[in-house]
Amino acid sequence: MSYELIRVERIGPVCRIYLNRPEVRNAQDRSLLRELDGALREAEADDDVRVVVLGAVGDHFSAGHDLKSARVERPNPTVEQRWNYEEEHFLEYCLRLHDLKKPTIAQVQGACIAGGYMVANMCDLIVCADNAFFSDPVAHSMGTASLEVLIHPWVMGMRKAKELIFTGARLPAAEALQIGMVNRVVPVAELEQATLELANTIAAAPPYGLRFTKRSLNRTWDAQGFRAAISAHFDLHQLSHVTEEFQEHLKRGLDSTIKRAKGLA
């Protein structure tokens, strides 16, 4: 496939997929998400690819969902239209990334917010630059039930997950490393090289051994209720769109939401 909003590179056994909308901090619109899903499927099907790196062009990993394009594409979605869209582009795409048969590494710099946070945390490992920060301001600024995929307590623990969501505050790279949400933090200038070195080390392992081990590790979460919890939250997230709180948010307008989210410490 040819892509416009992502960049795909093959470096030996490593497939590097970059979000490529730096002019809008790699905000994720429908076209970008579809291209990303397509590139991940291609990498999974390519026997020569052993590891997939998911990164981004520019200063930031991703500012999350592109709310402005969503408002243009779906100005007044019905409950059914919103449900179908978010189920495909957010829930199903994220779970497919989580279930990818090959190891995945998120390479994160700068802002990793909301939908960006969700995508990065579906990867097996995260390497981030020392200027990276993570944030989920959605409940605080929009009045919806956090993100579509509530991965938070699975990657950082319940207490910290509640704090992150309830306050909408930023989680700096150093703290994300301390609580075990990310694997490594390196200087910005060394991010690409450090991530590639880790990917090549993993790629040297027997591929089916990694594939089977990843499946077992993912099933450990499943045995603890991962998929049931993710699905249950997605339903509540959809319900939160029809509350009076969310309707008041819509009346205030998109600029008010963005301003409020940026104002969170």
Give the helix/strand layout.
Blueprint: E1 6-11, E2 14-19, H1 30-45, E3 51-56, H2 67-73, H3 79-98, E4 104-108, E5 111-113, H4 115-120, E6 125-129, E7 133-135, H5 138-142, H6 152-156, H7 158-167, E8 171-172, H8 173-178, E9 184-186, H9 191-203, H10 207-223, H11 226-240, H12 244-252, H13 254-262
Parallel strand pairs: 2-3, 3-4, 4-6, 5-7, 6-9
Antiparallel strand pairs: 1-2, 7-8
Helix pairs in contact: 1-3
Report what the structure shows.
The chain is an alpha/beta fold and 265 residues long. The protein has one domain (6-262): 2-enoyl-CoA Hydratase, Chain A, domain 1 (Alpha-Beta Complex), CATH 3.90.226.10. The protein has 13 helices and 9 strands. The chain has helices at 30-45, 67-73, 79-98, 115-120, 138-142, 152-156, 158-167, 173-178, 191-203, 207-223, 226-240, 244-252, 254-262, and strands at 6-11, 14-19, 51-56, 104-108, 111-113, 125-129, 133-135, 171-172, 184-186. The strands form 2 sheets. The chain has a 6-stranded mixed β-sheet with strand order 1-2-3-4-6-9, sandwiched between helices. Belongs to the enoyl-CoA hydratase/isomerase family. It holds the Pfam family ECH_1.
